[in-house]
Write a structure and sequence with these properties.
- With 260 residues, this protein is an alpha/beta fold.
- It has one domain: 3-Layer(aba) Sandwich (Rossmann fold).
- Helices cover 33% and strands 21% of the residues.
- Helix 5 packs parallel to helix 9.
- The longest helix has 15 residues.
């Protein structure tokens, strides 16, 4: 099946359900950003450290798989030339709503995060890529394309899932609050879920997900040519595993030598 098309429709449903990642920022957030008081998330709860960012004024910035009207409007408020790239038009519409409400300029592009061919080589200075690569099968393509479109010294800020979250039986987790180990990493809903569970997810228009190895998540960035220069972990903000370990990771990666 075409999981990209399926996830596009699934995220439209998430917008209708007001998933936290689909709720656009309010006027107060933009007003504070105009006064220099701002923060953004790559993972569920921990703000990205300010030292991870370059000077944002007038830089070309790509918000990759980053619709929802949350991070991109903040960056535009701070003076960046922002392109929002997302698979789901309903998510991009949230960015459009905030931009029109606040008088901001955002370029909105709908597409697959694995294919950035519409953008030229070495075009962006910063890519902001919140937790989302669990919705595609091949993240090595995401890292390669990100490397290609970044300028020398450009920065890739990424959030992603700790793959341990994908080894557990989701029905036991959701229905009974039990942590039952059942699956292996790398994980794929399409390949490892029992047929009846997969069919149920498809029919309910729930997202189809992939649990990528840390070798692909971190080693894949290095193999693409990046230098990892920042790292932190984060909790989910309330899941079963939070009392045992952090289930999200964020990295700062540099293409070539950082610009002075």
């Amino acid at each position: 099946m075409d999981f990209v098309e399926h996830n596009r429709e699934a995220w439209k449903r998430e917008v209708e359900k007001e998933n936290p990642w689909t709720r656009p920022v309010d006027r107060d957030v933009i007003q504070k950003a105009r006064q220099g008081d701002w923060s953004v998330l790559l993972t569920p709860t921990k703000p990205v450290p300010k030292p991870w960012f370059p000077e944002l004024e007038k830089i070309q910035l790509l918000c990759l798989a980053c619709g929802g009207g949350q991070q991109a409007p903040v960056f535009a408020t701070l003076g960046a030339d922002v392109t929002v790239f997302d698979n789901c038009p309903a998510q991009l519409e949230k960015d459009r709503e905030v931009a029109e409400r606040e008088g901001l300029t955002l370029a909105l592009e709908q597409g697959d995060m694995r294919d950035l061919s519409r953008f030229p080589d070495e075009w962006f200075s910063l890519i902001f890529h919140p937790t989302s690569n669990c919705f595609v099968d091949d993240i090595l393509a995401v890292w390669r394309e990100s490397y290609r479109v970044l300028k020398q010294g450009g920065i890739l800020l990424s959030g992603f899932c700790n793959p341990v979250t994908f080894i557990f039986d989701l029905k036991e987790w959701d229905d009974h609050k039990n942590l039952v180990v059942r699956y292996k990493i790398p994980y794929s809903d399409l390949q490892q879920l029992p047929k009846e569970e997969l069919d149920a997810r498809i029919n309910a228009k729930e997202t189809l997900e992939f649990g990528h190895s840390l070798e692909d998540q971190i080693g894949g960035q290095i193999a693409a040519g990046f230098s990892i220069q920042g790292f932190y972990e984060d909790s989910s903000g309330g899941d079963l595993l939070d009392s045992y370990l952090n289930t999200f990771i964020a990295t700062k990666a540099i293409k070539g030598s950082p610009t002075s």
